[in-house]
Amino acid sequence: MKKRIGIVTSGGDAPGMNPLIRYLTRALLENGYDVVGFKSGFKGLANNIQYPLTYKNVSGLLKVGGTILGSSRYPEFKENKSVREKVRDVLSSENIFALVVVGGDGSMKGAHALSLLGVRTIVIPGSIDNDIYGTDQTLGMHTALSTIIDAVDKIKDTASSHDRTFIIEVMGHRSGFLAVASAIATGAEGVFIPEVETDVEELSKRLRKRYEEGRRNSIIIVAEGKASAYDVAKILKEKDIGYEIRISVLGHIQRGGIPVFHDRMLAFRFAMGTLKALSQNTFNVLVGTKGNDIVFTPLEVATKKRKTLSEFLINSVYTFKWEV
Ligand code: F6P
């Protein structure tokens, strides 16, 4: 009898989840497995709401943002063991050999909790935040960065017309990754992230100097996990930087859009990694990337450790001469 694999996307969606569903479904079918999707994250799973995944109905997904399976935040799953047991019972009654969970940190913890109830799980890191231990990259981060860069470039146009400083808040949960990576890529003048203290006095002086030199815009990127753009604006308004200040909170636009090349490629690599884990009977692991390699980290480890920002990015905040 064919082994039946379940796929669920959970937590905040991320561009690249649809390509992943497409690559993984076809790879599984071609390798002799049966596949079924569950709708709306662990919530749909608890209620056994299925989505048939066939070779044909995953067609056209490479260029589609979001997730056709839908997703949800489902605190009851974390809070009540009885809900987790319900999910285990659904999987067992549906004869699911292993469950592939695509999601962020919370979803990985959910998968780990299921594995403790005897469910075979494989987790694929899907989150724009790139904050999951055991992988260099998470599915969706590349597209989110492209969206942020595009937005900042556009904001710069209007900032220049009006001689303004813009404080731009980006997502990232508790991680400063999206903020610092996009700050580098857009030549921002300053960045606020949870991992590093920003010297506000030094930044204010630089902004003032830019203003006096007639530099027509300044961009400050703030990670939501550090502060809100409104808090940072309040601080800078007291510093006489010269520029008028405006705020832009990019919000959920960062989670949408057509997956870019690197997220499609990542989706393909994660799908191949999942197939490898299945063929080796490696379960209860996170499938991650380490450079050019695919690596497996036990959920027992990945759920307990916190991913830190790379030394390179941390140092960039300290030593990089933010464009003046
Ligand atoms: O984890 C992804 C993420 O987009 C975070 O960057 C953000 O803090 C959070 O999800 C927003 O969640 P929600 O869509 O539930 O408001």
Textual characterization of the structure:
With 324 residues, the chain is of the alpha/beta class. The protein folds into 2 domains: 4-140 and 259-302, Rossmann fold (3-Layer(aba) Sandwich); 141-256, Rossmann fold (3-Layer(aba) Sandwich), CATH 3.40.50. Helix content is 42%, strand content 19%. The protein has helices spanning 17-30, 41-46, 75-79, 81-93, 105-115, 141-162, 177-186, 200-212, 229-237, 261-279, 299-302, 311-319, and strands at residues 4-9, 34-38, 50-52, 96-103, 121-125, 164-170, 190-192, 217-223, 244-249, 285-290, 293-298. The protein has a 7-stranded mixed beta sheet, sandwiched between helices. It is elongated. The chain starts with a strand and ends in a 5-residue tail after the last helix. The model has no long low-confidence stretch (mean pLDDT 96). 6-O-phosphono-beta-D-fructofuranose binds next to loops. Residues 12, 73, 104, 127-129, 171-173, 224, 255 line the site of 6-O-phosphono-beta-D-fructofuranose (F6P).
Question: How do the strands and helices of this protein lay out in sequence?
Answer:
Blueprint (H helix, E strand, L loop, with lengths): L3 E6 L7 H14 L3 E5 L2 H6 L3 E3 L22 H5 L1 H13 L2 E8 L1 H11 L5 E5 L15 H22 L1 E7 L6 H10 L3 E3 L7 H13 L4 E7 L5 H9 L6 E6 L11 H19 L5 E6 L2 E6 H4 L8 H9 L5
Parallel strand pairs: 1-2, 1-4, 4-5, 5-10, 6-8, 6-9, 7-8
Antiparallel strand pairs: 2-3, 10-11
Helix pairs in contact: 1-10, 6-7, 7-12
Bound molecules: 6-O-phosphono-beta-D-fructofuranose.
6-O-phosphono-beta-D-fructofuranose binds next to loops.
